[in-house]
Amino acid sequence: MRIVVLRIGHRYVRDYRVTMHVALVARAFGASKMLLASDDSSIVEGIKEVNERWGGSFEVECIGSEQSRWLDAINAWRKDGNIVVHLTMYGLHVDDVVQEVRSRCRDEGRDVMVVVGAEKVPKVVYEVSDYNIAIGNQPHSEVAALAIFLDRMFEGRELRVEFKGRMRIVPTARGKRVLDMSKSSTDGKG
Question: Signal peptide: which range, if any (predicted)?
Answer without folding.
Answer: none
